[in-house]
Amino acid sequence: MLKIKLTLLSAAVMVGLAGCSSTQQSNESAVTVAEKQYQNPILQPFSGPYQGVPQFDKVQLKDLEPALDIALADHLSEIDQIASNTAPATFDNTIVAMERSGQALDRVFTYYGIWSANNSSPEFRKMQGGLMAKYAKYRSQITQNKALFERIKTVYESPEFKQLSAEEQRITWLQYNSFARNGATLEGEAAKRYAEINLALSKLHADFANNVLADEEGYVVYLSKDQLSGLPASYITSAAAAAEERGKPGMYAVTNTRSSMDPFLMYSTERELRKQVWQNYYSRGNNAGEHNNKAIINEILTLRHERVQLLGYENYAQWRLEDRMAKDPKNAMELMDKVWPAAIARVKEEVADMQALADKEGANIKIEPWDYRFYSEKVRKAKYDLDSNEVKQYLQLDKLREAMFYVAGRLFNFEFTEVPEGSVPVFHEDVRVWEVTDKTSGEHIGLWYLDPFARQGKRSGAWATSYRSHTTFDGKTNVLSSNNSNFVKAPAGQASLISWNDAETYFHEFGHALHSLSSKVKYPGSNSGVRDYTEFQSQLLERWLVTDEVIERFLVHHETGKPMPKALVNKIKQAANFNQGFATTEYLASAIMDMKFHTTDPAKIGDPVEFERSQLAAIGMPSEIVMRHRTTHFGHVFSGEGYSAGYYGYLWAEVLTSDAAQAFASAPGGFYDEEVADRLVNYLFSVRNAMDPAEAYRKFRGRDAAVEALMLDRGFPVNSEK
C-alpha cells in the first residue's frame, strides 16, 4: 500500500484504504510482516462479519493521535526491514513486501477520514494540523530512504522485470516513479529542504480546509415566515428542520452549503436575500478575520513551486501532469482552450434571454451572479415549459438509490441487500449499509456504506471512499466502499426530494463506488488512480439516469407513486443542453485558474483573489458568473494535492465519457447492451490502475477518444475552436 500512502492525502477528503488480509506468504528471500496485536482500538484489525469491518462504535478521538504515532513507527520499522534486507532485491522481497506493509496505518487513515470529512469537531480540528505534520515527516523519511529506493530501482531495471506480469510491471513502475518524483533522488541540503516543505504544506492544507469548514458553519441565513416567497414546500420544510437543529425553532435556515444555496438562489423571489446567500457561499475563506485563506494560498503556492524546482521542474503543473494522461500543462490547456470560447459564447446567449425576460417583467435590474439561477429557471419554463420543482417531485432519494442498484445489476451483475440494522457498526445514525453480491453466483463482493445527509461537522460536497480494496495476493479480500453526500434531510415520514443536478451527482459518486467494487486486481497498489482518468467512470454512470428503464421504473411521484409523465420526460431531454454555458464556464474557470496558479511564478501572483479576477478578465470571463470553486475555498486544490494542477481532469474525463457514451448509444442494446457492458467492466472498471488508462480505453473503444464527442454532447459547435 506504500504507493498510496506516499500520495499526500487531502486534509479535506481522506481516502482510507485498508490493508490486505493478514494471511501472509513467506519464502527464503521475502520480507514478511506479521500482524501485531494492539490495545488501541483504532489500530486493531477490523473485526466482525464480512471479513471484518471498521469498528466505528468503539473508536474514540482521544485514541487517534496515539494510534497514528504507533502506526507510523511500525510502518517505518517494516520499511527499514525491507530496505536492510541483505538478500538481492527481487520483486517479491521488495515490491510485494512494500505492498503488504502498513496495514495498521491504513486502518488509522480509515478512521481519520471519517473525523476529517464526515464527523469533524472543534477538538479534531485542533489536532489535525499536528497529525498531518507527523504524517509529512514520516512520508519524507520513506521517500528519502536511499537503501529502499535503490532496491526498488534494482527491481525496475533488472532482467526479472521483463518476466513479471503486466500488473506486476505496472506496480513496480508506480513505486519507482512515485519515489523518483517525490524526492528520493535528492541529497544533502536539498533533501532536508524537501522534507521541511512537505511538513509545512501538511499544516497549511489542514488550515485551509478548516477555515472553509468554519465559514460554512459560521454563515447561516435564518429566515422568518414572511421571507419564504417563491420557495418550494419541500425546501421550506427542510429549512425549518435545519433551523430547529441549530436551536432556532420557528425559523428557516439556509445553510452555507451548495445543496442549500443552489435551490434558494433558484426559487427565492427575495433578491437581496439571494445576494446575501450567494455572498456567504462564494466568500468562504475570504471573509475578514482568522479564517481568511489568502495568506495560506500564497504560502502553499510558494512552497509547492520551491519543492518542484528542487526536482528540476520549471513549475508545479509540469511536475504534476508528467505521469497523468495529459502528460504536460500545454495539452491540458489546449483542451480547455478548445471548449472555452463556445462556453462563454453560450453564456452571452443565456444572459440575453434572462435579461430580456427580466426587462419584460419590469424588474429594472441587470443580471448579476445571484440572479443567474433564478432567471435561468424562468427561461427554462418559458422555453421548454420545464419547471425544476415539478421535476423534483419525481426525484426521491430512496428511489434513486434503487435505480442505481438496478443499473449496477444490469451492467455489473451486482445485487445489493441491506444488512440488518446494528449488524455492522456505523459512524452516524444516518449511515446505512448494503451487502454486494454477484447476482448469478451469489459470491460476496463487499459492503456499500451510504451517508447521504448534510449535518454540522460534515464537509460540503459529495465524495466516495473505500475502507478496504479488493486484492488477491495474500488471499482474496472483499471491498468496503462508501458514498457520502450532503442532501437536505426531509422530516421523518416524508420523502427527501433532490434536484436533477443532485441526482446526477448521486449517480456520479456511485460510479466511483462501482469502480472500487468491480476491482479484479491482485495488488493493493493497483487500486490507486490516475487523477485525470478516475473521474471518467463516475461521469459515465450519470448517463444511465436518463435511460428509459430508469425513468419508467424509479422516477415516480413521491405522493401519487405515478411514473414521470412522458411529456415531462420529453421536456427534460429537450432541455438537456439548457444552461450548458453556465455549467461549463463556472467549471472551466476553476480549472483554468488552477492551471494558472500552478504555472505562474508565485512571486508574481500577489493577492490571489486579485490574481483570480485579473486572469479571468483577460480571457473574457462573463461578469454574471464566478468560478464554481473560488480560490479561497478551492479545497480540491488547496486542502491537499489530489487535484492540484489537476482540476482540468474532469473535462479530460468528460471527453472520454462522451466518446464512451456514443459506444453505448450506437450499440444494438443501447445503454444496456451486454457486449459493450462487458467491455466496460473488463477494461474500464475492473482493471483499476493495473493498466495504463490510455491503453485500457483503446481496448474498450478500439481507438482514442475524440473531443468532438464532448462538443456535440454539450450542444456546442464542433468547430468553435477555429
- The CATH topology of the domain at 391-556 and 648-692 turns out to be Neurolysin, domain 3
Radius of gyration: 25 Å
Helicity, in percent?
40-55%
Mean pLDDT: 92
Low-pLDDT residue spans: 1-33
Class by SSE composition? mainly alpha
> Would you count the extended β strands for me?
7
What's the helix count?
Answer: 29
Global morphology: globular
CA distance, first residue to last residue: 46 Å
Percent of residues in β-strands: 5-15%
- Any idea what the CATH architecture of the domain at 391-556 and 648-692 is? Orthogonal Bundle
CATH class of the domain at 391-556 and 648-692: Mainly Alpha
Major sheet attributes? 5 strands, mixed
Query: Strands of the largest sheet, in order across it?
Result: 3-4-5-7-6
Protein name: oligopeptidase A
GO molecular function: carboxypeptidase activity; metal ion binding; metalloendopeptidase activity
Keywords: Hydrolase, Metal-binding, Metalloprotease, Protease, Signal, Zinc
Catalytic activity: Hydrolysis of oligopeptides, with broad specificity. Gly or Ala commonly occur as P1 or P1' residues, but more distant residues are also important, as is shown by the fact that Z-Gly-Pro-Gly-|-Gly-Pro-Ala is cleaved, but not Z-(Gly)(5)
